[in-house]
C-alpha cells in the first residue's frame, strides 16, 4: 500500500525521519548488553508499518529487520502454535493477545527497557485483556462499522439493521467473512453484549442471519472495501481503516459506527516465546513507541495511534477525522472482543457453518 | 508385466527411492495428523490423544454430510466440463502439425503459472457487475437500442428500459467457472499424453471399414484413450473437491465447500482434531474411489499377463 | 502415419471448424483474465478496481521492492528443485508400477495417489507438525532454508508426474524393450535407449505440471515457510489483505514473461534434440 497523494505529509515525513534517526541514536544497543546478532524478525500485517520505519530503525541502531507478513490473526496463531519458527516481534489483535497469554505463547515485556511507555495515551496504559500490559504494548486501534456509498443510501445507515435485518439494500450488502465478528455484531444489533456466550442468543443471531442471507451478496474475505468501491455492493461491514483507504479515492463513500455500537479493536506489539533476539525486540518496540517514529507510521497507514506524543506531531486533518478517531460517545457504545473459551469458539464456528450451509 | 523376482536388483532400484520418500516425508506427517484426529483439544495449543471417536461422530453429522455432497456436486460438474473441453483441446493438439504442438501445449499451460490469487482477482474483474463481460454486453445493448431507434421502435423498449447486468459473480456459477479455469490443464495433459502415442491406424481402419466419425470416436478413440481419461478425471476431480480459495473468493453466500469448513477448523475455530477428522473422512471416501481404479487396472493387467 | 498428409483427411481434426472454434474459445477463456491482469498492471490507481490511466511506476515499485524480489527468487528456486526431484521420483514410480508385479502393489499404488487426494490444508498442517516435531533447523542459510518447503512440494508433486508418465507408458509396446534386450543390451541400456526416449513427452509434460504446482502453491507453502522463506504466492496473499495493487500485477506479468522464456527455451532445446 503506497500512497500517491502524500504531499501534505512529505515535509512531516522528512522531519519525522530526521527526528526518528536522532531518536534512534538513543536506542543504540552499543550501550546495552546485547550479545545478540543485530537482526530482528518482525511478523506483521501487510503494509502496517511506515514507509521508512524499518530502514530508519536500521540506520539508527544497526539492527537489520526482516518483516514477514500474515493475513489474519488465525494464521498468526496457527503459525506459532506449533512452535515459534523464529519471530521476535508479532502484532496480534487484542483477543488473540488474550488467547496467546492463556496459552503461554508470549513472554513478558520488560517495561524498564521501554522508556517510551510514557508516550502512550493513558487510556491504553492498561487493558482488560492484558492487565498491567505485561505482555503487550499498543500499536494501533480502530473500529468495525458500516461503510456505505452516500449516493445509493436513503440516509446514513447508522444501524446494523440495514445489513442484518432489512431487504432495503437487497443483494447489495456484504458482510465480513469472519465467524466471530459477524455473530458478535449481530449480538450488538439484538442488544446483547458483544461477548455473549448464551447458546440461545447465538441461535437467535444465527437464525436472523439465515433469514437475511438471500439479501447478502457475499461474506467478504477482507476485500469489502473493494466491493464498495467498484459498486458491487452499497453497504458493507468493514474495518474503519479499510474504508478510509477507499474514501481517499472516492468522495462518495462514507463510514459510520452504528448506533447499537460496533467492535473496538486494538493491535499490539508482543514478543513470542522462543524469540531468538529478545533484546533487539525490546529496542524495536521502544523505537516504535517513540513520538516521531509513531507519527511517521500513523501518517502513513492512517490508523488511530494510541501514542499521545505522536498525535501531537500529526496534522489536524488526521486528529479530527471521525473515521480514524471516533467521538467519545461512539467509543462508549462499542465493545472490545474477549477470548471466551474453547466451547464458545466451537459454538460460533458451528453456527457459521450452519449459516453458510443453509 | 514382470514379477519383481525376475530382476530384483532393477526392481529395488526403482522401488526404493519413491518408497523411502513416501514413508519419511509423507506417511509420517500424515500419521501424526491421523493420531490428532483421535485427540481432543486441551487448552489452546495442546492436543491430548484420548483415542476418542467424538470427532468422527461429529463429522458424520447431517450438517457436514450435506456439505460433502455439495462439494462432490461442484467437483463433479467441474470435472465433466473439463473432460469435454479438455478432450477436444487434447485432440486438437495431438492432431495438429508437429511444429505447432509444443506451442499449443505451452499456451494451455501458461495461464497456470500465474498466481492463483491474481488470476482469481482477474476473473473477478471480468465477471463482476461492472466487469468486462457486462461492459461488453452493455455496449451491445446500447447498439441494439440504437438500431431499434433507427427502425423507429425505441418507444417499445424491446430491450428493457435499463441495462440489467448479468450476475456472474458471488454465486455458484462463478465457483464452477473458477474451478474449471484452474483445473483445465490438469485434464489436458494426461489426455494429450495418452492420445499422442495412440496408434492412429486403428482410427483409419475403423473409418475405412465404414464407421462414422462418431462411432469411431466412441468405439475406438475413447477406449484407447481410457487410461488418460481416468488419470485426467482423478487429477481434476480430487483437487477440485478440496479447493477452498476459489469458492472463498468467487462464491456467494451459498457456495461453501467442505475444504472451507476444514480450513476454518485449523484457523478460526482452532479445533485441529476435528479438522483432522473431517479431512480424513474426505480422504477415506476418495481413497475408496482410487482403490476401485487400482483393482480395475490390476484385473486388466492380470488379463494381459495371461494373454 | 506421420508421413501421410491429406488435406482435410479424416484424421485432420484440428482443421475441423468445431474443433477450431472450441480451441479458440478455450484460449479466449484462458487468456482473457491474463490479459486483464497485464493491462491493469499499467493502471494508475493504487486500488486497481477502475482504470485511471497508464503508468509504469508500479513496475518500478516492484523492482525496488526487496521482499517481493526475494519472494520471487525463493519461488523459482523451490520450483526448480522440486521439479527436478519430482520428475525423478515420478519416473521411477511410473516405471515401477508399469513394469513390475509385486506383493502389496495395490496398497503401494494407493499410497502414491494419496498426496493428490489430500486437501492441501491437511497436508500443509501435517508437514508443519512434522517439521516442528523433528526439530528441523530454522536458521539455515539460503538456499538450504528452503529445504522444508521444497520437501513438501516434492511430496505432493511427484505423484502427479507419476500419473502423467504412467498414462504415457500404458500404450508402450514392451516388445521393443524386450527386443533390445534380446539383442544383447543391458538393463540400463534398454532403459536409456528405448524406454527413456519413449517416456520423454510424458516426462516433459510431468515436469511442466510439477513446475506449475510448485510455483503456484500457497497453502502447503504457507504452513512450511518461516522467516526469510516467503514465497511469491504467500507474499501476494498477505498483500491482498489491503487489496491487490498494480504492483502485484506488475510482478506477476514479469513472472509470466520469465516462465514463458524458460519454457520456450526448453521446448526449442527439445525440438533440436528430437531432430538429431
Features:
heterotrimer, A: 358 residues, D-Maltodextrin-Binding Protein, domain 2, 2 domains, disordered N terminus, B: 307 residues, MetI-like fold, 3 strands, 72% helix, 3% strand
Provide a descriptive summary of the structure in words:
The complex is a heterotrimer of chains A (358), B (307) and C (276). Chain A has 358 residues and is α/β, with parallel strands linked by helices. Chain A folds into 2 domains: 7-140 and 265-319, Periplasmic binding protein-like II (D-Maltodextrin-Binding Protein, domain 2, 3-Layer(aba) Sandwich), CATH 3.40.190.10; 142-263 and 326-357, 3-Layer(aba) Sandwich (D-Maltodextrin-Binding Protein, domain 2), CATH 3.40.190. Chain A has 15 helices and 11 strands. Chain B is mostly helical and 307 residues long. Helix content of chain B is 72%, strand content 3%. Chain B is built from 12 helices and 3 strands; from the N terminus they run E-H-E-E-H-H-H-H-H-H-H-H-H-H-H. In chain B, strands 2-3 form a two-stranded antiparallel ribbon. The model of chain B has no long low-confidence stretch (mean pLDDT 82). Chain C has one domain (63-275): Orthogonal Bundle (MetI-like fold). Chain C is 72% helix and 1% strand. Chain C is built from 11 helices and 1 strand, in the order αααβαααααααα. In chain C, helix 2 (57-64) crosses helix 11 and helix 4 (105-117) crosses helix 6 (147-169). With 276 residues, chain C is mostly helical. Chains in contact: A-B, A-C, B-C. The interface between B and C is large, with 109 and 105 residues. Strand 1 (2-3) of chain B pairs parallel with strand 1 of chain C, so a sheet runs across the interface.
Q: What is the mean pLDDT of chain A?
A: 85
Kindly state the mean pLDDT of chain C as a whole number? 79
Q: What is the oligomeric state here?
A: heterotrimer
- Low-confidence blocks of residues of chain A: 1-33
Helix content of chain C: over 70%
The assigned structural class of chain A equals alpha/beta
Helix content of chain A: 40-55%
The CATH architecture term of the largest domain in chain A is: 3-Layer(aba) Sandwich
Examine the secondary-structure arrangement and name the CATH architecture of chain C: Orthogonal Bundle
**Straight-line N-to-C gap of chain A:** 37 Å
CATH homologous superfamily (4th level) name of the largest domain in chain A: Periplasmic binding protein-like II
Amino acid at each position: 500500500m503506497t500512497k500517491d497523494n502524500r504531499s501534505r505529509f512529505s515535509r512531516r515525513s522528512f522531519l519525522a525521519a530526521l527526528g526518528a534517526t536522532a531518536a534512534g541514536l538513543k536506542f543504540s544497543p552499543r550501550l546495552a548488553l546485547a550479545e545478540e546478532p543485530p537482526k530482528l524478525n518482525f511478523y506483521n500485517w501487510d503494509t502496517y508499518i511506515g514507509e521508512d520505519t524499518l530502514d530508519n530503525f536500521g540506520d539508527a541502531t544497526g539492527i537489520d529487520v526482516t518483516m514477514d507478513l500474515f493475513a489474519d490473526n488465525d494464521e498468526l496463531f496457527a503459525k506459532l502454535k506449533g512452535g515459534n519458527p523464529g519471530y521476535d516481534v508479532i502484532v496480534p489483535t487484542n483477543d488473540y493477545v488474550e488467547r496467546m497469554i492463556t496459552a503461554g505463547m508470549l513472554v513478558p515485556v520488560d517495561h524498564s527497557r521501554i522508556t517510551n511507555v510514557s508516550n502512550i495515551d493513558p487510556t491504553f496504559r492498561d487493558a482488560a485483556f492484558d492487565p498491567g500490559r505485561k505482555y503487550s504494548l499498543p500499536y494501533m486501534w480502530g473500529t468495525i462499522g458500516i461503510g456505505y456509498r452516500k449516493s445509493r443510501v436513503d440516509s446514513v445507515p447508522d444501524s446494523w439493521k440495514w445489513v442484518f435485518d432489512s431487504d432495503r439494500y437487497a443483494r447489495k450488502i456484504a458482510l465480513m467473512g469472519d465467524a466471530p465478528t459477524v455473530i458478535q455484531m449481530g449480538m450488538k444489533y439484538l442488544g446483547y453484549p458483544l461477548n455473549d456466550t448464551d447458546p440461545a442468543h447465538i441461535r437467535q443471531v444465527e437464525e436472523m442471519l439465515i433469514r437475511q442471507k438471500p439479501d447478502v451478496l457475499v461474506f467478504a474475505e477482507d476485500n469489502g472495501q473493494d466491493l464498495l468501491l467498484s459498486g458491487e455492493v452499497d453497504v458493507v461491514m468493514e474495518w474503519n481503516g479499510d474504508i478510509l483507504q477507499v474514501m481517499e479515492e472516492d468522495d462518495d463513500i462514507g463510514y459510520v459506527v452504528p448506533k447499537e455500537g460496533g467492535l473496538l479493536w486494538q493491535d499490539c506489539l508482543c514478543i513470542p516465546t522462543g524469540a531468538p533476539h529478545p533484546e533487539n525486540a525490546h529496542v524495536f518496540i521502544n523505537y516504535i513507541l517513540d513520538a516521531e517514529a509513531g507519527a511517521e507510521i500513523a501518517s502513513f497507514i492512517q490508523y488511530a495511534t494510541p501514542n499521545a506524543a505522536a498525535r501531537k506531531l500529526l496534522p489536524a486533518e488526521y486528529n479530527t477525522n471521525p473515521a480514524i478517531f471516533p467521538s467519545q460517545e461512539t467509543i462508549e457504545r462499542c465493545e472490545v472482543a474477549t477470548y471466551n473459551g474453547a466451547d464458545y469458539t466451537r459454538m460460533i464456528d458451528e453456527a457459521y457453518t450452519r449459516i453458510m450451509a443453509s | 508385466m514382470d514379477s519383481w523376482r525376475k530382476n530384483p536388483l532393477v526392481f529395488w532400484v526403482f522401488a526404493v527411492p519413491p518408497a523411502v520418500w513416501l514413508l519419511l516425508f509423507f506417511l509420517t506427517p500424515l500419521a501424526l495428523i491421523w493420531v490428532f484426529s483421535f485427540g481432543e483439544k486441551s487448552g489452546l495449543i495442546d492436543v491430548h490423544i484420548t483415542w476418542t471417536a467424538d470427532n468422527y461422530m461429529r463429522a458424520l453429522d447431517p450438517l457436514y454430510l450435506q456439505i460433502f455432497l455439495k462439494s462432490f456436486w461442484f467437483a463433479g460438474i467441474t470435472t465433466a466440463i473439463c473432460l469435454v473441453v479438455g478432450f477436444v483441446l487434447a485432440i486438437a493438439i495431438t492432431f495438429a502439425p508437429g511444429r505447432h504442438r509444443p506451442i499449443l501445449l505451452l499456451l494451455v499451460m501458461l495461464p497456470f503459472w500465474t498466481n492463483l490469487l491474481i488470476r482469481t482477482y482477474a476473473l473477478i474483474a471480468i465477471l463482476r457487475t461492472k466487469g468486462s463481460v457486462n461492459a461488453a454486453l452493455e455496449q451491445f445493448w446500447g447498439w441494439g437500442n440504437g438500431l431499434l431507434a433507427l427502425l423507429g421502435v425505441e418507444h417499445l423498449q424491446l430491450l428493457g428500459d435499463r441495462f440489467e447486468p448479468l450476475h456472474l459473480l458471488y454465486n455458484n456459477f462463478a465457483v464452477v467457472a473458477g474451478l474449471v479455469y484452474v483445473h483445465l490443464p490438469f485434464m489436458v495433459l494426461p489426455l494429450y499424453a495418452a492420445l499422442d502415442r495412440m496408434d492412429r491406424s486403428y482410427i483409419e481402419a475403423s473409418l475405412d471399414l465404414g464407421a462414422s466419425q462418431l462411432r469411431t470416436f466412441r468405439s475406438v478413440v475413447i477406449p484407447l484413450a481410457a487410461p488418460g481419461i481416468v488419470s485426467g478425471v482423478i487429477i481434476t476431480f480430487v483437487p477440485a473437491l478440496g479447493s477452498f480459495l476459489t469458492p472463498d473468493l468467487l462464491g456467494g453466500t451459498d457456495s461453501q465447500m467442505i475444504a472451507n469448513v476444514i480450513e476454518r477448523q485449523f484457523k478460526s475455530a482452532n479445533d485441529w482434531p476435528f479438522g483432522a477428522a473431517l479431512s480424513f473422512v474426505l480422504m477415506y471416501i476418495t481413497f475408496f474411489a482410487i482403490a476401485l481404479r487400482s483393482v480395475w487396472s490390476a484385473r486388466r493387467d492380470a488379463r494381459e499377463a495371461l494373454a | 502415419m506421420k508421413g501421410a498428409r491429406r488435406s482435410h483427411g479424416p484424421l485432420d481434426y484440428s482443421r475441423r471448424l468445431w474443433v477450431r472454434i472450441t480451441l479458440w474459445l478455450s484460449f479466449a477463456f484462458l487468456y482473457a483474465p491474463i490479459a486483464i491482469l497485464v493491462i491493469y498492471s499499467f493502471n494508475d490507481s493504487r486500488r486497481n478496481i477502475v482504470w485511471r490511466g497508464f503508468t509504469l511506476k508500479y513496475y518500478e515499485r516492484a523492482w525496488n521492492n526487496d521482499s517481493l524480489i526475494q519472494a520471487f527468487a525463493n519461488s523459482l528456486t523451490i520450483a526448480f528443485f522440486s521439479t527436478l526431484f519430482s520428475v525423478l521420483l515420478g519416473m521411477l514410480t511410473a516405471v515401477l508400477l508399469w513394469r513390475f508385479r509385486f506383493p502389496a502393489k495395490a496398497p503401494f499404488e494407493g499410497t502414491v495417489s494419496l498426496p493428490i487426494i489430500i486437501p492441501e490444508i491437511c497436508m500443509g498442517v501435517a508437514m508443519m507438525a512434522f517439521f516442528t516435531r523433528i526439530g528441523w533447523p530454522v536458521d539455515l542459510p539460503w538456499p538450504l532454508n528452503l529445504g522444508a518447503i521444497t520437501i513438501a512440494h516434492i511430496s505432493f508433486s511427484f505423484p502427479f508426474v507419476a500419473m502423467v508418465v504412467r498414462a504415457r507408458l500404458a500404450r508402450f509396446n514392451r516388445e521393443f524393450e524386450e527386443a533390445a534386450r534380446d539383442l544383447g543390451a543391458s538393463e540400463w541400456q534398454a532403459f536409456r535407449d528405448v524406454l527413456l526416449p519413449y517416456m520423454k513427452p510424458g516426462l516433459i509434460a510431468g515436469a511442466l505440471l510439477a513446475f506449475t504446482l510448485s510455483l503456484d502453491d500457497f497453502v502447503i507453502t504457507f504452513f512450511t515457510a518461516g522467516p526469510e522463506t516467503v514465497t511469491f504466492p504467500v507474499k501476494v496473499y498477505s498483500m491482498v489483505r489491503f487489496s491487490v495493487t498494480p504492483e502485484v500485477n506488475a510482478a506477476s506479468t514479469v513472472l509470466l514473461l520469465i516462465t514463458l522464456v524458460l519454457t520456450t527455451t526448453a521446448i526449442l532445446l527439445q525440438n533440436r534434440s528430437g531432430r538429431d
